[in-house]
Amino acid sequence: MIRFAALFDALDRTTKTNAKVAALAEYFREAPEADRLWTIALLSGRRPKRAVTSTELRIWAAEAAGLPLWLVEEAYPVVGDLAETIALILPAAGQTSDRPLATWITDLIALTGQPAAARRSFILAAWDQLATAERFLFNKLITGGFRMGVSRGLMTRALAEATGIAESALAHRLMGDWSPQTTSYARLIAPDDPQADAAKPYPFALAAALEAEPGSLGQPGDWLAEWKWDGIRGQLIHRPGAFALWSRGEELITDRFPEFAPLADFLPMGTVIDGEVLAWHAAGDGAPQPFAALQKRIGRLNVSKKLLAEAPARMLAYDLLEDAGQDIRARPLAERRARLAAIIAALPGGMALALSPPVMADDWAGVATLRATARDRNAEGLMLKRLSSPYHLGRKRGDWWKWKLDPHTVDAVMIYAQAGSGRRATLYTDFTFAVRDGDDLVPFTKAYSGLTDAEFRQITDWVRRNTLERFGPVRRVPPELVFELAFEGIQASPRHKSGIALRFPRMIRWRRDKPVAEIDTLDTLRALLAGQRGFSTPAPPEDI
Q: Catalytic residue at 228?
């Protein structure tokens, strides 16, 4: 654990990419193989299941530190991180230990399901043999909130430097459904076993936001414009011994979308397709439903017949990554799309797979005119892809751009405030907002991002001076501060008093110039909701 703590410290002390890569590469060369494996897992989002609750940790830490529980509870929001709070309040370790990272994690996994007394005894003994820095990381492993300030791409780059294996090959090997409990470090970085990796997806190519005018990209004929659909990005894989659907978050979601199962009988063997899974209108009018319809199916292992009928799934295919068992990602997009179109054209009718249609216009002005209709199609805007481009690894600027519509906006008043976490633990950054409904103010959303630290400090001073009531960490304040909020979508929500919920709300401006009397109304939001395809204006629920 000492070596792992030193790595964490080295990464935490710098913002320079090359320094982070060098520190990781050195660790991957010198650490025990089991520790390397678990480090790769942690940095790619594969964490052990929690064996101890946060409540238990707070109680046991208070006992070990000889402090009343209420004092620990008060210290937590000030520090902003439970793992760090506990590491700081515990007394000095009574002994020293340098057990490997992998051993600690194995013991934590074995702790799952054990009686509370056994779990308490193990945690207290662990705390008593770890220094503060190692305790902090140990606590992070327990709570599951692990962050090291390293992207998956940067980690893969460092691993490539340490092993001499091409970054693109490693990125592919790290995809899919693996865990340190089912593989070894040597096997993970070894050349792919075609049989073992039959269902493994490729790393997804990503686009950067277009900030310049599209005319700066050159001739429109050099580009493919297509709709940026608002669904679940996925890869559909048909290889010998495997038919699988993966989400971009590397979740195997095949069983959640039985509509795609018939494709296993008709897609050519050795086919991998990149596309967007959408909920489709059952009436077959050629249009996707809003994301909210698909959201009802996300997270459900068993989808009811009623839901299958209301929100049938369909994939609109963007790209072909593998054809007849050959990786064609390096081929030009124009060729990949032509092959994809041929595969889809050969399918029988009624399949839940179609080609994402190109957006055709003579010039960029015409493309912009079509882009303005995106919301009518339940799309977020356009994707612009250079026809000569390969299928990139991750996000590379220059060849793929997302040209989204401007978000919806609403002016609302803050009515509750809560402190943030981490470096913003001493600032009020998490706000609840309301809009007018007649003479009343109705809460309808929360937001915590979009403002500068300087603005958050000003608002924090105002909250402290104007708090009306306290509800634990939440402060009720006078409805005086008005903000402009941006959001990507709106949907009906019977769980909320307002009857609506926003998608990706964030603050874009503190409206110091606007009084509360001029904020938007609930009727404005209901009208926006009613204007979306597939929705009618919801009746407000009786209670929140």
A: yes
CA dihedral sign, ordered 27, 29, 34, 38: positive
CB 248 within 8 A of CB 204: yes
Find tokens 């593998």 and name the residue.
322
Across the range 316-339, mean pLDDT stands at 96
User: Is this model's pTM higher than 0.85 or not?
Assistant: no
Go through 297-330 and write b for each residue having 16 or more CB atoms within 10 A of its CB, e for each that does not.
Answer: beeeeebeeeeeeebbbbbbbbbbbbbeeeebbe
Same domain for 428 and 375? no
Q: Is residue 541 part of a domain?
A: no
The tens digit of pLDDT for each residue in 79-112 reads 778 888 999 999 988 888 788 999 999 999 999 8
| Catalytic-role residue among 228, 296, 305, 385 | 228
Residues 380 and 318 in one domain: yes
The verdict on 400 and 469 lying in the same domain is no
Q: How far apart are CA 314 and CA 278, in angstroms?
A: 5
Q: Are 234 and 246 in contact (CB under 8 A)?
A: yes
Burial class (CB in 10 A: 0-12, 13-18, 19+), 154: middle
Integer Cα distance of 274 and 333 in angstroms? 12
Alpha-carbon distance 6 to 4, whole Å?
5
The pLDDT tens digits of the residues spanning 137-184 come to: 998 888 876 677 788 888 888 999 999 888 878 888 888 778 898 888
Q: Which domain-ending residue is among 143, 175, 192? A: 143
pLDDT digits (tens, 9 = 90+) for 42-72: 888 888 888 889 899 999 999 999 999 989 8
Give the single-character DSSP code of 50.
P
Among 100, 121, 143, the domain boundary falls at: 143
Indicate the residue type of 28.
F
